[in-house]
Amino acid sequence: MKGYFALALHSHLPFVKHPEHEYFLEEHWLFEALIESYLPLLMTLQRLQNEGIKTRLTVSLTPTLCEMLDDFNLREKFAAHLDKLIELSYKECKRLEGDFIYRDVAHFYRHRLESIRRFFTDDLGSNALNGYRKFMRAGMIEIITCGATHGFFPLLSVNEQAVRVQLRVAIQTHEKHFGVKPKGIWLPECAYYEGVDKLLAEVGVEFFYLESHGLIYGRPTPRFGLYAPVFTPNGVAAFGRDPESSRQVWSSISGYPGDVNYRDFYRDIGYDLDYEYIKPYISPDGTRVFTGLKYHRVTGQGEYKEVYNPAVASAKAKEHAENFHFNRVKQIDHLSAFMDRPPIIVSPYDAELFGHWWFEGPKFIYHLFKAIAEHDEIEPITPSEYLEIYQTNQMIHPSPSSWGKDGYFDVWINPQNDWIYRHLHKMADVMQELARRFAGESSPLIRRLLDQMSRELLLAQASDWAFLITAGTAVEYAIKRTKTHISNFNKLLSMIDASIDEGYLSELESRDSIFQHTRFDVWN
């Protein structure tokens, strides 16, 4: 064994639940991620387990995602959505039965969707969390947490208690869903600021991931660069992201996903086919949306796209996985000359890259672990396992950083979204004061109201809203969600010393139902 390889997948979506609507467009963010990324990953892990291939993988499941995956209303909606797509796939097979160009790819999608449906229903009991629990217990994956609602810690830290609560609720939620405390955390947006390690240590977190420059620009410069973890002043381990391996997978230009044989993300029958034909399978208001049935491959930079061939794409994924493995071995060979221990290459990615953006990504993961097992030159490992072997590491002060554009914080605070933070800071101050004032409160109704105020604040703190505003994606929804949670918080606040509208409170508890297991006392 020459060195270690630590693959990590960050699985996150903001909490979106609208039980008041039969169809809500933004709920489909979760449905798409399940069909294209989360369930295919779990099916890949099942295949690796069945074949006895050693697998070590770190998966961060954010508290918001866990709460959605476990939500009965959303699970019912997802099953109905999946059945609708299966219906569409049968309809497509019939439409294309005489088309020798597209017929096979239509049948591919029908078989794929049916296998996902069987896996979700029969193997997982209609709850994806059961799959994660299974492979966690089997020792194949280590599940870590994130901020409760993916709040951007550096910008929340004006009130330190706001960050502390994001962490406390995250630990509670992880224990609720997995029965154990997490050893690691994926800092939301990989955003580090000096002093957050103290709060991590308080809740028992042992390690986190850091963007490359957060480690390299630390004080002092890390002796082994990015290829061994460091300890922060408060004793929490930081693992730095390796840019070389990340670029090979992440980049659609210079990386594997840009290969002309892979499936094209943007060509979808939801946009391509006749409106009247596709109407039952898109938004009820007539808005065209992705169905996931995409018949073309990347092909090239122009508009013309050739038909997608799943078998050819799968073979290419195997070739790329073997190339990735070869490059990691060469990289470790080079690094070993400068280190007194085997190097560890840390490769963290958004989980949605594998399957959603890069359709063949789950196959790549399968072939990568198979190549690692066959060649026996590098060892797949989780950060927890590494720290058990190497308990002595250099201490440095990491640099403030994130993995956002330009590497720092301006994606989440700029002239487009900076208005958000004065509200978040004020609300955190108010919530902290209310927690002290009502610490011994006996009224169940007041305690319910305060619990819901805490939820509304946490939901408003989600970094997703500021990000979407900057990115220009779903801007109207992001602004509305932010303002709605602020308004809900303030309306509840106005009831504390007046009469409480229990109907309004119950409505919020039903829609913004996240973290029912937490109490407002967490702010003390």
Radius of gyration: 24 Å
Q: What's the CATH superfamily of the largest domain, by name? A: Glycoside hydrolase 38, N terminal domain
SSE ordering:
EHEHHHHEHHEHEHEEHHHHEHEHHHHHH
Sheet-strand content, in percent, reads 5-15%
CATH architecture of the largest domain: Alpha-Beta Barrel
Mean pLDDT reading: 96
- Number of DSSP helices? 20
Largest sheet: 9 strands, mixed
Class of the largest domain, according to the CATH hierarchy?
Alpha Beta
Roughly how much helix do the residues carry, as a percent range?
40-55%
The N- and C-terminal alpha carbons lie at a distance of 49 Å
Short characterization:
The protein has helices spanning 28-50, 63-69, 72-95, 103-123, 128-137, 153-156, 160-178, 196-202, 212-216, 243-250, 269-272, 275-278, 310-336, 361-375, 383-389, 419-437, 444-460, 463-471, 475-495, 502-511, and strands at residues 3-11, 57-61, 141-146, 184-186, 207-210, 230-231, 237-240, 344-350, 378-380. Helix 1 packs across helix 4 and helix 1 (28-50) runs parallel beside helix 14.
Characterization of this structure:
With 524 residues, the chain is α/β, with parallel strands linked by helices. The protein folds into 2 domains: 3-75 and 126-265 and 309-406, Glycoside hydrolase 38, N terminal domain (7-stranded beta/alpha barrel, Alpha-Beta Barrel), CATH 3.20.110; 414-523, Families 57/38 glycoside transferase, middle domain (immunoglobulin/albumin-binding domain-like). Helix content is 50%, strand content 8%. The chain has helices at 28-50, 63-69, 72-95, 103-123, 128-137, 153-156, 160-178, 196-202, 212-216, 243-250, 269-272, 275-278, 310-336, 361-375, 383-389, 419-437, 444-460, 463-471, 475-495, 502-511, and strands at 3-11, 57-61, 141-146, 184-186, 207-210, 230-231, 237-240, 344-350, 378-380. Strands 1, 2, 3, 4, 5, 6, 7, 8 and 9 form a 9-stranded mixed beta sheet that branches. Strand 4, helix 8 (196-202) and strand 5 (207-210) form a beta-alpha-beta unit. The longest helix is centred in the middle third of the chain and has 27 residues, at 310-336. The relative contact order is 0.15. The model has no long low-confidence stretch (mean pLDDT 96).
